[in-house]
């Protein structure tokens, strides 16, 4: 009988000490607590890494300037590794254990969608950095997002294509959540925009070569342009393969490719690619009269100095989310969740780096097609298209 | 032999005791959430341990069964309005059947070929779950309705805690019974040497298939529970990383030790929460911890600590 | 039609050669120690990222490449000495977990020391594609193919002509007998890890100009390399080469002719099919087990 009590004691010891360690991570209440779970490592780290860096540097800056409502901001960031499965327990921890006042989180659509039921149940404002339209459409009471949706991107692209007399599109997409959501939109919005999708190819995660798929698109009957829905390293590989195969039709991508590293890593293949981008991406080319010029330039300067790498719209999503939150909390005069929610919905013409936001109870994104800028890669840099 | 004096009975009683008093130590619902996840993982691990620890077969694709059970429940309940308990049972039956069909050819493989075979199986399942978006919601996943049996729903974390713990106790009890039965002895013979076992008259293929199916069913049931508890599923439930996590839990906790499987599940589910203090160093520390534990406790936590205790006692 | 087929073939052979190199690494370590080194993919990553790092320090490409390979070999030695050797007589499953832990550790370390972004590496001799019968092939692909052939030939000569090589082969057949013959089996093990690290790093450097490199590149490549090794019959280096090419080409053909969505699945389905029909891999032969 002794050995079994030892076994019991052993298990209890392990459990108790583990729980004790976790308990010691809990924190006290006075500052304004911002909770975040981001894909800092893993396959989506090019999203989460700039987001985290942006949040870190701006929380520090705001605190140095006196905080919000006289209170310091406290940022708690957990790394979901790009895995929605890990995002869920972290969200629960932020809400129930760390007791945060607001969530600025969710680098990916997958992580965001997984967490929404918990957020809605707990009743806490949540500003997501995920890309797909399904996050705010249909509208959920507590959920907002800052990045443009793939729906907007596709609409913008179709508008540009139509203006250039293109009506037959060859589509390539990856296997990620954004890719698939984007693809769905491309197919669904085609008829209404007078477009037809003549090729529909996909590639897998971590693929290093898409020449087979692009070859098929190139040979599709009547194809007039290629559109790639995806983000990350794959965007550059697609561009390189496109160039290698000597494809002559126009090459469109989405705002998922809107970063300098896309151009750099494509080794010349990005030349001529067209995509819709947030103003931040082409800030240097914006005229001084552009409403976003000042805010976007300041962010660019700060990020490049502090992070030592180039800006991307992804970090911009985090900046906009943080500033929107700070603004709403300031206007609400407290961190009372319902009050903050009401103020977020009253956001009007808020100038962010990715766009100008006007929210409402039925619009938790606050951006439209106009806030997107159509750009083309020329000479290794972004050039605004009229 | 008097049932009460068997060490396993003591083990189950201790586990039941811990489960009974643990709620008093958990400050808020986040802690309950972690413990519930430990329980769900433990159910899978108890089954997987039978396969890896007792039968000596490796499976690098078990998350596939977990994912199938989860999506079965998710799709049938949320999209077709089935009753959750019926979906759970049907899922378990479906997965059991699939495992049975796969078992014969897969169990013919040895060692690393078996690893590859199960690996391939798991990956194909996760690719299908990812691709068939119309059915499964694709990579962005799908929401799952809550659990209900004849109208009664587990309303909060505490109720789920009792449910999962209860099922875990049942799983442990079943595993212990299996091990101490003629089937268990046959399994251990197979683990020791398949050739010797078959010479001794053990139908090696049959027993390997049996354990494979049992462990798959455990995983499927745990998956269904997880689907309803978390309310949201993504194809990553079935992916390679999750399979590796499960194997690590079993090996870390202690192969050929049912309680080791529970401990392993507990440690590996808690570890990411504990390691958040390391921020950027998290992955580094996690990898190092895995290596160091396995090098110094190569039979796993529970067996190694147990022999250490026994030696200290002498 | 023909041009299309050729295009798919080129892309399949290119990526297949990389899988082959990675698979070779698996096979060599398995031969020496019965261990499946799940950190093999990280050797690939270290080769590519290491090159990026050294180039970033201002070193010319050839030096950066050599340093990156050297770095990876050192890591390979370290892995063997610190993680595998202490656990020599542990159960196979434990060793697998150790190498998995090592791969996580190495990825974490790489992310700390370097960063999490994607990086490109210049092609060895320019990136203008060469047209062959209507299909385009990148000069880098030719580098990959030639290098793989050279490496395979060099390995063959190493194993059959040099003492160390023959010692490795002897140890893989029968470690006890090898020891009795005076072969330092722990040195053999060390060398095997170093050799696999060299192969992995080479694969990583060769593919980096085509497919970009980042700290997570080793995961999928490692997995596919493992497939290649198993397909060829673990422990048979030539089998790993054939396995790698088979996986690469079938992936490309599936993407081209059947469905690009399921191309990854096809590679694994083929392996499952082969294993079910030939449980010891394509070249494994009938296995015998000593009772």
Give me the number of helical elements of chain C. Answer: 11
Task: Please provide the count of β strands of chain A.
Answer: 14
- What string gives the helices and strands of chain C in order? HHHHEEHHHHHHH
Using the alpha-carbon principal axes, give the shape of chain A: globular
Q: What's the end-to-end separation of chain A, in Å?
A: 83 Å
Order of the strands making up the biggest sheet of chain A: 2-1-3-4-5
The largest pleated sheet of chain C is described as: 2 strands, antiparallel
The main sheet of chain C orders its strands as 1-2
Biggest chain contact: A-B, 53 and 58 residues
Radius of gyration from the alpha-carbon trace of chain C, in angstroms: 19 Å
Helical element count of chain A? 12
Class from secondary-structure proportions of chain A: alpha/beta
How would you characterize the overall build of this protein?
- Chain A has 386 residues and is an alpha/beta fold.
- Chain A is built from twelve helices and 14 strands.
- Chain A is 44% helix and 17% strand.
- In chain A, β8 (225-229), α8 and β9 form a beta-alpha-beta unit.
- In chain A, α2 crosses α10 and α3 (84-97) runs parallel beside α4 (109-122).
- Chain B is 75% helix and 1% strand.
- Chain B has 14 helices and two strands, in the order ααααααβααααβαααα.
- Chain B has helices spanning 7-21, 29-54, 62-80, 84-107, 111-131, 133-136, 157-179, 182-192, 194-199, 204-230, 240-253, 258-275, 282-296, 301-313, and strands at 142-143, 232-233.
- A two-stranded antiparallel sheet of chain B has the order 1-2.
- The radius of gyration of chain B is 19 Å and the shape is globular.
- By secondary structure, chain C is mainly alpha-helical.
- Chain C is globular and about 60 Å long.
- The chains are: A alpha/beta (386), B mainly alpha (314), C mainly alpha (291).
- Chains A and B meet through α1, α3, α4 and α6 of A and α1, α2, α5, α12 and α14 of B.
């Amino acid at each position: 009988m002794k050995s079994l009590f030892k076994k019991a004691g052993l298990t209890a010891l392990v459990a108790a000490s583990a729980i004790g360690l976790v308990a010691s991570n809990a924190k006290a209440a006075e500052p304004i607590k911002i909770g975040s779970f981001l894909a800092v490592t893993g396959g989506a780290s090019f999203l989460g890494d700039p987001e985290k860096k942006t949040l870190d540097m701006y929380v520090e800056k705001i605190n140095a300037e006196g905080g919000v409502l006289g209170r310091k901001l406290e940022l708690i960031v957990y790394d979901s590794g790009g895995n929605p499965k890990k995002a869920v327990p972290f969200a629960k921890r932020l809400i129930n254990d760390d007791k945060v006042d607001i969530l600025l989180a969710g680098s990916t659509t997958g992580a965001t969608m997984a967490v929404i039921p918990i957020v809605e149940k707990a009743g806490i404002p949540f500003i997501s950095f995920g890309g797909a339209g399904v996050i705010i459409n249909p509208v959920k009471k507590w959920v907002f997002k800052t990045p443009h949706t793939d729906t907007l991107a596709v609409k913008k692209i179709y508008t540009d294509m139509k203006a250039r007399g293109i009506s037959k599109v060859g589509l390539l997409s990856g296997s990620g959540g954004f890719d698939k959501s984007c693809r769905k939109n491309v197919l669904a919005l085609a008829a209404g925009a007078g477009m037809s999708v003549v090729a529909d190819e996909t590639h897998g995660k971590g693929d290093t070569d898409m020449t087979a798929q692009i070859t098929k698109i190139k040979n599709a009957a009547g194809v007039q342009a290629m559109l790639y829905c995806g983000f990350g390293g794959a965007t550059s590989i697609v561009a390189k393969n496109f160039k290698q195969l000597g494809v002559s039709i126009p090459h469109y991508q989405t705002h998922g490719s809107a970063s300098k590293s896309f151009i750099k890593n494509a080794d010349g293949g990005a030349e001529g690619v067209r995509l819709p981008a947030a103003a931040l991406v082409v800030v240097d080319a914006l005229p001084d009269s552009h409403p976003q010029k000042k805010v976007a330039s300041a962010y660019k300067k700060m990020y490049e100095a502090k992070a030592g790498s180039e800006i991307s719209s992804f970090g911009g999503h985090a900046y906009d989310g943080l500033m929107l939150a700070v603004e709403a909390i300031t206007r609400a005069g407290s961190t009372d969740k319902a009050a903050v929610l009401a103020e977020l919905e009253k956001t009007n013409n808020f100038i962010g780096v990715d766009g100008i936001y006007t929210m409402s109870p039925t619009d938790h994104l606050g951006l439209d097609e106009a806030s997107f800028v159509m750009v083309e890669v020329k000479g290794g840099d972004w050039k605004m298209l009229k | 032999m008097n049932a009460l004096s068997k060490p396993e009975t003591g083990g189950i009683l201790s586990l039941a005791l811990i489960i009974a008093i643990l709620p008093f130590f958990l400050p808020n619902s986040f802690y309950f959430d972690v413990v519930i996840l430990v329980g769900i993982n433990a159910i899978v691990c108890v089954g997987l341990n039978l396969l890896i620890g007792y039968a000596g077969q490796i499976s690098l694709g078990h998350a596939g069964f977990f994912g199938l059970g989860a999506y079965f429940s998710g799709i049938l309940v949320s999209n077709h309005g089935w009753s959750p308990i019926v979906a759970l049972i049907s899922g378990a039956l479906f997965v059991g059947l699939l495992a049975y069909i796969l078992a014969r050819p897969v169990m013919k493989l040895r060692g690393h070929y078996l690893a590859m075979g199960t690996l391939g199986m798991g990956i194909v399942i996760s690719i299908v779950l990812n691709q068939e978006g119309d059915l499964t919601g694709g990579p962005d996943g799908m929401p799952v309705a809550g659990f209900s049996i004849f109208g009664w729903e587990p309303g909060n974390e505490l109720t789920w805690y009792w449910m999962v713990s209860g099922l875990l106790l049942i799983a442990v009890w079943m595993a212990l019974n299996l091990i101490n039965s003629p089937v268990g002895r046959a399994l251990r013979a197979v683990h020791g040497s398949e050739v010797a076992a078959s010479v001794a008259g053990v139908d090696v293929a049959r027993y390997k298939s049996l354990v494979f199916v049992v462990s798959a069913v455990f995983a499927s049931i745990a998956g269904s529970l997880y689907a309803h508890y978390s309310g949201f599923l993504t194809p990553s439930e079935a992916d390679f990383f999750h399979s590796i996590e499960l194997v690590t839990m079993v090996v870390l906790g202690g192969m050929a030790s049912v309680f080791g499987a529970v401990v392993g599940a507990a440690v590996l589910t808690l570890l990411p929460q504990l390691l958040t203090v390391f921020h950027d160093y998290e992955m580094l520390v996690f990898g190092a911890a895995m290596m160091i534990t396995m090098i110094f406790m190569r039979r796993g936590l529970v067996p190694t600590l147990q022999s250490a205790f026994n030696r200290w006692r002498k | 039609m023909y041009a299309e087929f050729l295009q798919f073939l080129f892309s399949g052979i290119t990526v297949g050669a990389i899988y082959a190199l990675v698979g070779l690494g698996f096979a060599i370590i398995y031969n020496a120690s019965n261990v499946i080194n799940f950190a093999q993919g990280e050797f690939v990553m270290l080769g590519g990222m290491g090159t990026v790092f050294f180039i970033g320090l201002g070193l010319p490409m050839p030096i950066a490449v050599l340093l990156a390979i050297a770095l990876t070999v050192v890591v390979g030695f370290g892995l063997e000495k610190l993680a595998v050797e202490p656990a020599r007589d542990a159960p196979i499953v434990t060793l697998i977990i150790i190498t998995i832990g090592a791969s996580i550790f190495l990825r974490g370390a790489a992310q700390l020391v370097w960063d999490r972004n994607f990086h490109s590496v210049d092609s060895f001799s320019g990136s203008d594609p060469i047209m062959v019968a209507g299909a385009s092939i990148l000069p880098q692909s030719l580098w990959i193919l030639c290098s793989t052939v050279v490496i395979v030939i060099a390995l063959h000569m190493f194993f059959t002509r040099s003492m160390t090589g023959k010692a490795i082969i002897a140890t893989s057949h029968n470690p006890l007998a090898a020891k009795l013959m005076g072969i330092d089996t722990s040195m053999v093990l060390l060398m095997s890890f170093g050799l696999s690290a060299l192969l992995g790093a080479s694969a990583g450097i060769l593919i980096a100009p085509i497919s970009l490199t980042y700290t997570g590149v080793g995961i999928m490549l490692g997995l596919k390399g493992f497939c290649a090794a198993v397909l060829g019959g673990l422990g048979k280096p030539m089998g790993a080469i054939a396995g790698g090419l088979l996986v690469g080409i079938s992936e490309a053909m599936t993407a081209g002719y059947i469905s690009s969505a399921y191309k990854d699945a096809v590679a694994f389905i083929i392996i499952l099919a082969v294993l079910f029909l030939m449980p010891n891999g394509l070249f494994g032969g009938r296995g015998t087990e000593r009772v």
